[in-house]
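ugh ok fine here u go
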Amino acid sequence: MLRLIGSHYHFRRAVPVAVQARLGRTEISLSLQTQSKLVARERAAALYTRTGTLFFLRRQRHARREI
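structure:
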């Protein structure tokens, strides 16, 4: 989830298999643009929540189409 690359922290989260085709990617990786571990944790936690919501909504949208 949180990785130090060079001097900056990055967020990384695998995309669930059920959502990969709809998003067109297998992982989400973004620079958190900070050298502070504390700030990086806060930003990563927010991104983890937002990506979780995105995955949930994509699954729901797909489930509605199947009905």
